[in-house]
Design brief:
This protein has a single domain, classed as Sodium/glucose cotransporter. It has 650 residues and is mostly helical.
């Protein structure tokens, strides 16, 4: 169905090509720039993309600044632009705490988690759990769950929000615009590997920040800067309201970060502690993020990337959340609508139209040229996020699932499979567009975070126990994950079975839904998982210490020889040959040669990739004293600035 719709859209587009000429001349330049940028990266970034380590970890040669920029752009996709601005328009600045919390967890990534991952010598997060606990079932479960989360939360929400922006801003057909973006994005991800993705992310971060800052200044000038925003937002009431209801009024605590622990839409204990559970999964255990830090040429560069990413994550409050609030202040009848009939007419969603806050601001405030710039910003956000997810999903599938099924697969075969899987993800994404289109909701950001709170806390618990508690074993970790999954799925089923009431309607949901915020549920679920891990681990034999060297925080500097647990399958130890060994002959077909060249499987050899030996330079935690001090000072400065901002807006 999606394929037919895409072809029909293409025919309609060609038929009206003449009428689109003016639109292209005014705004298409930026889209053309995005295409040129994509193919430039595809052709110019060639670093070690002919080996598994080169393609999936950029040869472990990345420096701090592209890592930090990639951490930012990998997380700030089009879904975050639409979701953060929409939630800010609906409820105020508290949602910005999701961004500020990231600074603390990014420091934890660079100073706690990455040293353990480097000393363990792993390529993927499921591989770390396989080394730490042994066996196969935890690794398989983690890989499958991660892919499910990527497809149904990250990819789907990014596609929906990016398509929503393009559709609202330019009136382009949904299938044509998203299909083209997905194909272009997949092309340079397939061709370039992680190095291309990281350098592209770094450039697109500049586009995102620059364009968003331009809109921020224009928007603030319209309302009289911050004081004007406070006055205009608190009086932003739609002309059509619901009888005997107050939900059309802006929240009294709209400009406070810390809100009532019981009645607040984002209660402060949940925002501080429950959010940290979700953020730890996102920033410290999720393959999309951790893969960037693992590509660093040294631990100091990984730390520097975390610090830069933390500074960049301070900005979305000011160039996404507050502009969303300005959009409601300027357009209360559209962005702040509460009447279901009116909302359905404006944005096609009866529950509210806060999701259109950011694109509405772009359309109404920016001149034609800058409107094209903001189109480029959203395209950059969408493509950066999707390339990151495509590459990391390919890594998980190839090294944790496919290579497990075919342990004797050559590196050539694994490289081809990794690229083909990206194309499979593109097809799934295209087929998912109609589902996202019909599931349009006024609370996109809440959807993303609530689904994460149902599935991610058990993962956070297992990683924390694996790193800090040597007594944790495979049985405890597995049954902790299973218990957490069952409880989380039960809450998720209930959540989607009972729709939240519209404005003016009574809340008939069960108390566990109406009174237990999803951030509180994340805390409860993590605590339950930890209890199961502790109970089962203490009731079963411990893992001998010779299997744990350099796999925990306490043994990360150990020089002892580690013995892998029986039944452990390690991808990084079994995929080490250079692709040249599999290319002693040239294929006869020119088409086949072109495909191999696109995938980086032909051309001059850059040298083989030897196995990562124990205590080798690649998994060394040694740092130059000067740069270690520089990183430590900058991390403390980042946290000090973060505390000041929390206190100022508390």
């Amino acid at each position: 169905m999606a394929a037919d719709a895409y072809l029909m859209s293409l025919r309609r587009f060609i038929a009206r090509q003449g009428t689109m000429a003016e639109l292209w001349s005014a705004q298409g330049t930026n889209f053309k720039g995005e295409l040129q940028e994509a193919f430039a990266n595809m052709s110019s970034v060639q670093a070690n993309r002919r080996t598994i380590g080169g393609y999936f970890l950029a040869g472990r040669s990345m420096t701090w600044w592209p890592i930090g920029a990639s951490l930012m752009s990998s997380n700030v996709g089009s879904g975050l632009f639409i979701g953060l601005a929409g939630t800010g328009a609906a409820g105020g600045i508290a949602v910005g705490g999701f961004e500020w919390n990231a600074a603390w967890v990014l420091v934890a990534l660079g100073w706690i988690f990455i040293p353990v991952y480097i000393s363990a010598g792993v390529l993927t997060m499921p591989e770390y759990l396989a080394k730490r606990f042994g066996g196969k079932r935890i690794r398989m479960y983690m890989s499958v769950l991660s892919l499910i989360l990527y497809v149904f939360t990250k990819i789907s929400t990014d596609i929906f929000s990016g398509a929503l922006f393009i559709q609202v801003s330019l009136g382009w057909d949904l299938y044509l615009s998203t299909g083209t973006l997905l194909l272009v994005t997949a092309t340079y991800t397939v061709a370039g590997g992680l190095a291309a993705v990281i350098y592209t992310d770094a450039l697109q971060t500049l586009i995102m920040v620059g364009g968003a800052l331009a809109l921020m200044f224009i928007a603030f000038s319209k309302v009289g800067w911050y004081e004007g925003l406070v006055n205009h937002y608190m009086s932003a009431i739609p002309s059509v309201t619901v009888t005997n209801a107050t939900c059309h009024l802006p929240r009294n605590d709209a400009f406070r970060m810390f809100r009532d622990p019981m009645s607040g839409d984002l209660p402060w204990p949940g925002l501080v502690f429950g959010l940290t559970v979700l953020a730890t999964w996102v920033w410290c255990t999720d393959q999309v993020i951790v893969q960037r830090s693992l590509s660093a040429k040294s631990l100091s560069h990984a730390k520097g990337g975390s610090v830069l990413g933390g500074y960049l994550k301070l900005l979305p409050m000011f160039f996404i959340v507050m502009p969303g609030m300005i959009s409601r202040a300027l357009f209360p009848d559209e962005v702040g609508c509460v009447d279901p009939v009116v909302c359905q007419r404006i944005c096609g969603a009866s529950v509210g139209c806060s999701n259109i806050a950011y694109p509405k601001l772009v359309i109404e405030l920016m001149p034609v040229g800058l409107r094209g710039l903001m189109l480029a910003v959203m395209l950059a956000a969408l493509m950066s996020s999707l390339t990151s997810i495509f590459n990391s999903s390919s890594t998980l599938f190839t090294l944790d699932l496919y290579h497990r099924a075919r342990p004797k697969a050559s590196e050539r075969e694994l490289m081809i499979v990794g690229r083909v899987f990206i194309l499979v993800l593109v097809c799934i994404s295209l087929l998912w567009i109609p589902v996202i289109q019909t599931a349009n909701s006024g609370q996109l950001f809440d959807y993303i975070q609530s689904v994460t709170s149902f599935l991610a806390p058990p993962i956070t618990a297992v990683f924390l126990m694996a790193i800090f508690w040597t007594r944790a074993n495979e049985q405890g970790a597995f049954w902790g994950l299973m218990t957490g999954l069952v409880v989380g799925l039960l809450r998720m089923i209930l959540e989607f079975s009972y729709i939240p009431p519209s404005c003016g309607q009574p809340d008939r949901r069960p108390a566990v839904l109406a009174n237990v915020h999803y951030l509180y549920f994340a805390l409860i679920l993590m605590a339950l998982t930890c209890l199961i891990i502790v109970a089962v681990s203490l009731a079963t034999p411990p893992i001998p210490k010779e299997h744990l060297y350099r796999l925990t925080w306490w043994s990360r500097y150990s020089q002892e020889h580690r013995i892998d647990l029986a039944g452990t399958w390690i991808a990084s130890d079994s995929v080490n040959s250079d692709i040249n060994s599999h290319f002693d002959h040239s294929p006869d077909s020119w088409l086949w040669r072109a495909v191999l060249r696109l995938c980086g499987l032909t051309g001059p050899s850059s040298g083989s990739t030897p196995p990562v030996a124990e205590n080798s330079e690649l998994n060394s935690l040694q740092e130059e004293p000067l740069w270690r001090r520089v990183c430590n000072v900058n991390a403390l400065l980042l946290l000090a600035v973060n505390v000041f901002l929390w206190g100022y807006f508390a």
